[in-house]
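FW: tagging you since you asked about this chain on Friday. Here's the raw sequence from the shared folder, copied in full. Didn't touch anything.
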Amino acid sequence: MSGTGGGQTPQIPVGPPTGSYRKSEDEVGDHDTRFFGQPFALAHVFGVEMWERFSFYGMQGILLIYMYYAVSEGGLGIDQSVAAGIVGAYGGTVYLSTILGAWLADRLLGSERVLFYSAIVIMAGHIALALLPGLVGLAAGLVLVAVGSGGLKANATSVVGTLYAPDDVRRDAGFSLFYLGINLGAFFGPIVTGALQSSIGFHWGFGAAAVGMALGLIQYSFGRKALPAASRVIPNPLPKNRRMLFVGIGIAGLVVLALLVLVGIIRADNLAIIVIIVTLGAAIAYFAVILTSKRIDATDRSRVFGFIPLFIVNVGFWSLYQQQFTVLTIYSDERLNRSIFGWEMPVSWVNSINPIFVIILSGVFAAIWTKLGRRQPTTPVKFAIGVVVMGLAFLMFLLFANGAPNSTPLLGIVGILLVFTIAELFISPVGLSASTKLAPKNFRTQMVALYFLSVALGTSIAGALAGYYDPTNEVPYFTILGLIAIALGVALFFGVKPVLKLMSGVR
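HL: got it, structure written out here
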């Protein structure tokens, strides 16, 4: 899964330590090799991230059906389109929260502490979903998990990076091992929670997610002291005399949100639209701040302009890809034949298919790009191919459109998700890299934040679009969205040369 929604967890990088702390040559990196040739401290971050992904995708695998299933079936009886919008808004908020998580690490706590506290918040969210009844448990659980996941996403990779010296040849292998943990968690989570949900109830599934996060937190609690001092450094400390100002801003923001909910401006049925508007406004503001800054030169400004077409295409990609957790869940519940030798597979198990393909194919793609070297496609071409392939995946649904209940063969969905994964591997692994390569020196964090905002925007749009999905008339939905995605890719293909010119030497 990408993390950018799925398995791979993209991060906002935290800059080098500043202030009085200085690392000697001996302090840079960890030369231990006890964890499959890697520093043993990697096992602690590997574990907490694996269990976090287990709990995150385990919960998300049953979340939508929990909301729209009837009360007699253990659900909340929420309208299906409203429920899908909530899932999209929740997913978008996770990526919005990465910006808060990065800020807390950069200005107040350091990456390691934010990671630890975020894991506690996530566990509390899953406990709320498991134990608190009805809408109260849903609201409390989703808010806590979204904020906690954003904080963990924003800092886990930064902590892993502190384990290696810049020239340590094990770095890429270490991150590959970390990435494996992410996808193992994403694979097993929906299987466990789905099995519990289908046999003894939704809250047992949410409880399993809480237990998984607790296991990761316990392991990490014992091992966090072994992490290097660099993981706890605060790169740009907030002056003490300004802390109360930011506390006041945070409290004021919460009060405004509460008032908007109370007066009915923010409602369950428009939550996805609200998140889309907020995210879009934040993205425009970020672009404006960077492009109008006097601290960047003409080359930097050109590269930021070159990032705009990639931003737009990335939004289009994620607005389709993240429908795995909205439309595809509904489709799997109503259209998919989940019967295997007389036994019915839980709905959530469909969400475990993508991580298998990611684990298998990510190494294949890495080998291909390594083999091609300078002959590999440029970043804009990869983006264009990725979004076109994503569009084709949606058109593949037309092979089974408007069928009877449970008429789509399981192998059909497996094939479609294989195409999803191929599209993901053209875009997701290079998206964050492109944002860092195109970033002006003084705005690296802001450019990575822009990348996350594109994922947040696409995820929220995925929830809003799901409201237009009609299981009785699927052809227009899959056709229109598939063709729009292909059109985005074709437009970028034709614009590759001017985009590369704007990118000023970055490929």
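FW: The first helix runs from residue 41 to 68.
HL: agreed, and The chain has a mean pLDDT of 82.
FW: great, closing this out.
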